[in-house]
Amino acid sequence: MRANNDELAGPPTHRKETMNPICIRKYPNRRLYDTSRSSFITSGQLHDIVRHGTTIQVIETATGRDITNIVLMQLVIEREPSRILNLPSDKIHNLVRGIECGNGNCNTAAAS
pLDDT tens digits for 79-111? Predict the structure, then answer.
């Protein structure tokens, strides 16, 4: 019987966002480990995984902290900076200032 190499070629076949997110571990040396494939992946591969509709959760191994949003923002900044041009400047300013705006109401975010 011939081995199926489909999982080694092309974009990874992960669960779509309707399923539970796949867990990615981020090590202090900046390496990313995909627990669903039991292998290290590059940021490019992680970008492809998300672009294909898979939801991820990124856990920093040193602290156990969920850093998913940080990693997703890094992917946008590094791989698709032109998308940032479409975001309203006032929303980015508020994000930097620590102000949350939802439903038209802006509040200062609690210090973390």
Answer: 999 988 988 999 888 888 987 666 556 666 554
Q: How many domains are there within the chain?
A: 2
Residues 65 and 102 occupy one common structural domain: no
Q: What is the DSSP string of the chain?
A: -----GGGSSS-----TTSPPEEEEE-TTS-EEETTTTEEE-HHHHHHHHHTT--EEEEETTT--B-HHHHHHHHHHHH-GGGGGGS-HHHHHHHHHTEEEETTEEEEPPP-
- The answer on 60 and 39 residing in a single domain is yes
> Residue 47 corresponds to which tokens in the numbers above?
């970008």
pTM, entire model: 0.70
Both 67 and 110 in one domain: the answer is: no
**Distance (Å, rounded) from C-alpha 10 to C-alpha 29?**
26
Q: How far apart are the C-alpha atoms of 44 and 104, rounded to whole Å? A: 35
Token code pair at residue 71: 């990693």
